[in-house]
Amino acid sequence: MFQQQDLTQQADLAYEHLLQVFPLAKKFHPSLHQRISVDQSLKEPLQEFNRSEKSIIFDKLRQTHKQPLSSVPSETLLYLEQQLGDIFGLALTSETNLGSLPYLVGQIEAQPHLKSSPTDTINNHSSILEAGLRPERSYYGWQSEPYGISLPLHELAGWQTLSDKERKAYLSQLTLVINPWLEIAIVAKIVDIGPYHTQRYQYAGSPQLVREGKFWNPGCNGLAALFFLESNSTHLKTGPLSYER
Amino acid sequence: MNAKVIQSLTAIVPTLRWSDDVTIQHLQLSNSLTVIAEQLSPNQQAELAEMILDADTPPNKIAKWLTDQIPQITLLLRELESKVTLITRNMQP
Description:
The structure holds two protein chains of two kinds. Chain A is of the alpha+beta class. Chain A has helices at about 5-20, 30-65, 75-90, 165-170, 205-215; strands at about 90-95, 95, 100, 105-110, 150, 175-180, 185-195, 205, 225-230, 240. Chain A folds into two domains: about 1-45; about 70-240, Beta Barrel (Barwin-like endoglucanases), CATH 2.40.40. The mean pLDDT of chain A is about 85. Helix content of chain B is about 75%, strand content about 0%. By secondary structure, chain B is an all-alpha fold. Chain B has five helices and no strands. The mean pLDDT of chain B is about 85. Classes of the chains: A alpha+beta, B mainly alpha. At the A-B interface, helix 1 and helix 2 of A face helix 1, helix 2 and helix 3 of B.
């Protein structure tokens, strides 16, 4: 059995032999050690470049936080959808079939747990019990999704004219909720409609979503960016998304 | 330049498999070049090095040149490939 060290020795010997037979090969086939150090020296600036490029993208996302979506230039929106989509490896969009929500980056309200059945009690929930349990059922019925988000879908143009079935179709829609300051992304499912008054809060998140997204971390102040995932992403599991930072 | 040599050799034997591991790939390339160089005169070696270093010479042209100079090159490269496969198979994870 060989080990990596043996293999390196073999490669060094093979290289020495090559240079005896064909000295000119040195001009286009560097030694293994030279090659590794060149690879390393190229890798570091590339990583640095990737890091700074990502921070530019997140900066741009943060800049949209005081602007209604209608005043964000369409090329900025497209840029964010494409670049963030590349970072997270997902197809993102800020629009639904019925148009867009009023804000891309909005204030997220921490909601209590939603009831998963008529007899559900707070003790049936395994974590963040201090968030409490909402007594009423969600618009979309009993919910057991830990990473749930409520969106003011009633503000979409044409929502009022939708049939009940069409409204229920949004229940299977996945979203990506991003903490633009800490660059955390969570795949969340739409579980309810709301907040009904959107002056103060534009979204509402389940206890797990708000906790893991660290949206109330100083600096972020409850601001969250929201994108819809294209329908081909339905196989995704909800929860924090790991990606190369 | 390594990539150009790999492309040239792969043009001769399209089924040649190159490892993603830098060390194994280096070993594969050194062995291949040694076997090729052993079949060439010093002048031919100089000509080959010049073609590899010349940015305007495409890998296909190098492949054609090598096949013309060394008719048995396909066989030689295949033999080498199996040797490297054997070494890597015996590598401890």
